[in-house]
Each structure stands twice: as structure tokens, then as C-alpha cells.
């Protein structure tokens, strides 16, 4: 949950009329969702539970639908500033940006 705490701290310190781009938001547009996925995977491994690993996979698939809607909303609210952020910051850590905008 450290991802969630650090991400929330960065969000709280950013004015509401600006895009949060500090801390973990510099390397991923979605550090809170990434932290949640890591929790599911960690619990699944620690408990040797295929159920938690399956839930993590399902949550990841569903999160992509939520993220599409969130990014459309952010583009409407922040406009060009968010488009620039999308162009320089990957959606997930470890997945490089493509040449085309997502």
C-alpha cells in the first residue's frame, strides 16, 4: 500500500487545477492502480492462492476500462497539459511509451 500512500500524498500536494506529475506520477500515470495490482499478486503468492492471482488478473482487465474513462475525463478537464503528460509518461511502470498517443 506504500504506492497508494505516496501517490495520495502527491495528489494532495497538487492544486486541483493542475495535473499531478510529481513523485510516482512521473514514472506512471496510475501508481495507485499499480499498487492495488501488486497487493493482489503479493497476497496470492504469500497465501499460495490462485483465487487472488485470478482476482488480480480480472481487476487488471477491468481497470483498463476505468482508466480509459478517467483519461478522457482528465483530457476534458486539463486539456493540453494532460495530453503532454500522457505523451511523456507511460500508463504502467515498465511498459515503454509507443510512438503513437494512447
Gyration radius, rounded: 15 Å
Separation of termini? 27 Å
* Helix count from the secondary structure assignment: 4
Integer average pLDDT: 81
Any idea how many domains? 1
Q: Note the run of SSEs as H and E.
A: HHHH
- Kindly name the structural category: mainly alpha
DSSP strand content: under 5%
As a percent range, the share of helical residues equals 55-70%
Characterise the protein shown here.
This protein has 102 residues and is mainly α. It has one domain. The protein contains 4 helices and no strands. It has helices at 2-12, 31-46, 50-78, 80-88. Helix 1 (2-12) packs antiparallel against helix 2 and helix 2 runs antiparallel to helix 3. The radius of gyration is 15 Å and the shape is elongated. It starts with a helix and ends in a 14-residue tail after the last helix. The relative contact order is 0.14. The mean pLDDT is 81.
Give the topology, please.
Blueprint: H1 2-12, H2 31-46, H3 50-78, H4 80-88
Helix pairs in contact: 1-2, 2-3
List its salient traits:
102 residues, mainly alpha, 4 helices, 64% helix
Quick structural overview:
This protein has helices spanning 2-12, 31-46, 50-78, 80-88. With 102 residues, the chain is mainly alpha-helical. The chain is elongated and about 45 Å long.
Amino acid at each position: 500500500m506504500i504506492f497508494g500512500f505516496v501517490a495520495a500524498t502527491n495528489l494532495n500536494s497538487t492544486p486541483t487545477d493542475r495535473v499531478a506529475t510529481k513523485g510516482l506520477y512521473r514514472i506512471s500515470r496510475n501508481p495507485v492502480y499499480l499498487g492495488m495490482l501488486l497487493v493482489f499478486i503479493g497476497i496470492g503468492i504469500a497465501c499460495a492462492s490462485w483465487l487472488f492471482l485470478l482476482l488480480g488478473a480480472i481487476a487488471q482487465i477491468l481497470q483498463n476500462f476505468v482508466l480509459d474513462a478517467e483519461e478522457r475525463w482528465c483530457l476534458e478537464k486539463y486539456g493540453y497539459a494532460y495530453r503532454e503528460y500522457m505523451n511523456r509518461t507511460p500508463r504502467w511502470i515498465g511498459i515503454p511509451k509507443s510512438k503513437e498517443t494512447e
